[in-house]
Amino acid sequence: MKAIVRPRYGQPDVLEMVDLERPEPADDEVLVRVRAASVNPADWYEMTGWLYLFRFSTGLLGPKNPRLGTDFAGVVEAVGKDKTEFHPGDRVFGARTGALAEYVCVKNAVVHMPAGATFEEAAAVPIAGVTALQGLRDHGQVRPGHRVLVNGGSGGVGTFAVQIAKALGAEVTAVCSAGKVELVRSLGADHVIDYTAEDFTRSGERFDVVLDVAGSRSWWALRRVLKPQGRVVIVGAPKGGRIIGALGKILGKRIGAMFGRSSGVFFIAKFSRPDLETLAGMLESGQVTPVIDRTYPFAETAAAFRYLGEGHARGKVVVTI
Q1: d(CA 72, CA 56)
Q2: Domain spans of the chain?
Q3: Is the per-residue pLDDT at 85 higher than 50?
Q4: Model confidence pTM above 0.70
């Protein structure tokens, strides 16, 4: 099978398409023929090895595992004897390391695709959708009637967050650049702020939950827009230095949140089948529609990573396989 690998850390030019042996599913796995995969900032960091701190797990001098990609959608090719809920021919989506390949074997993080969804749409969901869902529902504890602000409402996580917050019954304000205001408004945001024209932290508005995807403001600035007992959920931050990346900025927000009644939390999403099934239901009901900025053919995966690395994507970048 064909697969994308990076034999060393670096920019997209290091990516290669190679021939690998097609995997065989274990008894508790399914073999999926991948039809689409999306690329995420986490994949970009994996490719470049930018954060030295994370190299302790990915490989200090070079990647331990050369494979890339996590989000996928495709068709079940074969099923292990213990996976009775899937059958060859089923359309599925989920998450698995090495998803930028013609085939992947998956154990847990895989569910049936919703009716009517394309492979590209389904492949756009896993990392960004699960991050937005867990950030708002679990860590933000968003309830009907809450006022929610999404700082960074036009990217992969942000476009899902706007829609999921609305589905949870919140009044949503989203922050983005001028060229993306109409896109974010079309996703259901009640209010959209162009950060190039207005400082949202000095608007006088107060929110129950701030989902900080952009990571562009300090804790002391964000607390100005929080209600008493409000909370900031941090799911993104500026790149930062190469030693610890954005961890310094994240720790600053956590320490700041220790002083006062408001709270701040940083988290990394964890995949679960129930959450993927929740998102599949939201897609099928029309509560959530993935936003896809661009699609690239498999042979142009490096170009997809270059575009992602520019940091201007509206929603997700998808590779078709």
Answers
A1: 26
A2: 2-125+290-320, 128-266
A3: yes
A4: yes
